[in-house]
Design brief:
Layout lengths: L1 H22 L24 H7 L10 E2 L2 E9 L4 E8 L8 E8 L2 E11 L4 E3 L2 E4 L6 E10 L3 E4 L3 E5 L1
Parallel strand pairs: 1-9
Antiparallel strand pairs: 2-3, 3-6, 3-7, 4-5, 4-8, 5-6, 8-9, 8-10
Length: 163
C-alpha cells in the first residue's frame, strides 16, 4: 500500500511541475505588446540583385497582390440599428491596411472604412457597421474591400435585407 501511494504522489508532483512550467507559455505570444511581425528565417527571400536583374526596366512602383477576403459574419442588427460585417484577409499577414464596407441597395451606396490589423495567421478587419438610418428598405448587397501598400481586393457580395 505504501509503494502505491509513493507512485501516485510522484505522478501528482510531476504533473504539477509540468503544469507550472507550461503555464507561462500561454502568455508568451510572440508579438505581445510589439509591432514586430513574425518571420521565418529559414525561408529564402529574394535578393535585391535578383529583382533588379530580372526586370531592369521595372518602375519603382510594383503591382499589388490580390487580397483574398473572407466575410466571417454579416447581417442586419435591428437592435443596434446597423448593417455589420466581420471579415478577414486570408492571404495577408500585415498591419497598416484598411477595410472598407460598401452597402448598395435601391440605387444608394454607403461606405464605411476601418483599420485592419495583423493576426497570427491572417489580417483581421475591425468590425464595420453602417447605421440603418437613411438606408433604403428591402434587398441590398455588402462587400468588403481591403487596401494596403502591398495588397488590394474586394470580397464577393453578400445579400442583406433591410427591414
Amino acid at each position: 500500500m505504501r509503494n502505491r501511494n509513493i507512485g501516485f504522489a510522484t505522478k501528482i508532483a510531476a504533473a504539477s511541475l509540468m503544469a507550472i512550467s507550461l503555464a507561462g507559455c500561454s502568455v508568451l505570444y510572440p508579438n505581445w505588446n510589439t509591432s514586430q511581425k513574425p518571420s521565418d528565417s529559414g525561408a529564402p527571400t529574394p535578393s535585391s540583385s535578383a529583382t533588379a536583374s530580372a526586370s531592369p526596366s521595372a518602375s519603382p512602383t510594383t503591382a499589388k497582390v490580390k487580397a483574398l477576403i473572407n466575410i466571417l459574419d454579416s447581417g442586419v442588427d435591428t437592435a443596434a440599428a446597423n448593417v455589420y460585417v466581420v471579415a478577414e484577409i486570408t492571404n495577408v499577414v500585415e498591419d497598416g491596411g484598411q477595410c472598407t464596407m460598401t452597402f448598395i441597395g435601391a440605387g444608394q451606396t454607403k461606405t464605411v472604412t476601418g483599420k485592419a490589423e495583423i493576426n497570427a495567421t491572417d489580417t483581421q478587419c475591425h468590425p464595420l457597421q453602417i447605421p440603418l438610418a437613411g438606408l433604403p428598405k428591402g434587398a441590398g448587397l455588402v462587400t468588403v474591400t481591403y487596401n494596403s501598400a502591398t495588397h488590394t481586393g474586394t470580397s464577393a457580395a453578400i445579400a442583406v435585407t433591410i427591414p
